[in-house]
Amino acid sequence: MSTSSVWGIPGPLLVIIVVGLSALALGWIVLSGRRLRDDDDRPLDELSPTELGMLLSDHHAILTALVELRTEGLINVAGRKRRPTAVEVHSLDPLSRNIYGRLAPLSAQPRPRRSTFGGPIRRKRRSVVRRDTRVLLEPLRADLTDRGYLVRNLGPRAYLPLCAVAAFGVVCIWQSIVNEQTPSPGAAGIIGAVLLVDLALALEIRSRRRRRTVRGEQALGLAEAEHEHLDPSLHPAIETYGKRAAAIGSALFGLALVHQFDPAFAKAAGATWIHGGAPATAGIAVTCGTWGGGDSCGGGGGGCGS
Prior knowledge:
Elements: E1 5-6, E2 9-10, H1 11-36, H2 49-56, H3 58-71, H4 86-90, H5 94-102, E3 123-124, H6 128-131, H7 133-146, H8 160-178, H9 185-207, H10 214-226, H11 238-241, H12 243-253, H13 255-261, H14 263-274, E4 279-280, E5 286-287, E6 304-305
Parallel strand pairs: 5-6
Antiparallel strand pairs: 1-2, 3-4
Protein name: TIGR04222 domain-containing membrane protein
Transmembrane segments: 12-31, 158-178, 184-203
Keywords: Membrane, Transmembrane, Transmembrane helix
């Protein structure tokens, strides 16, 4: 490596400076992320089932809202809604109420399409819930973030030091282009490699950002301890515990629990409304469940299991 210099700084020393500044900038990003998770001295709130689900993932929150609608008898296994009373709508969780407003009514059955040869065309269900996930969950995410349960996104200030280091490195590399000896080509290549490593590490740090704050971890841990009897491995009788237990269990344990008390709905929810892509068929089987709700069972199959 040549001993040429830029601004009076030798090439090898310049590389050491860039590497040191990069380490400090990356450390600042990590420290900023940890500060966002700091413990909150506010007392824990009693979280609703969908709020508990949101602490785990977006999918858990949506599944919990769908289970609440299902157990209240407001939707059938195919996700078609019936007309509720004003009291039923008012009693719903805000997320459940928003999802309910976007589902198709029970009477709105899709018309079968015919191919050129006269046979039916299997169409994939366009999941409104899946398509509008960001819009549906943003109010809940913002509320839990303000209350100290979810980690805020890192602001621009966390990345400013790294941007300054990158700008400094680019200037050094540019000097090597306009002046072959300032700095040395070897130093310029190393600096370029360091900047690429900085970018990769910054993206890795961002992808590994924690979802919950320390307060959120505490709330989730207490909920799991309080409702450990709903663990699917214990095969709980959800009908005995009631509707709220079904929603809370779905929030904490996901589809594994829903499969035990409403397998047809769990299959439809997991494949169509949460993950998307399940074909919409005219002869889907429907299970009534044990929650009541009058007109909650319906659909193309016509038969209700126990």
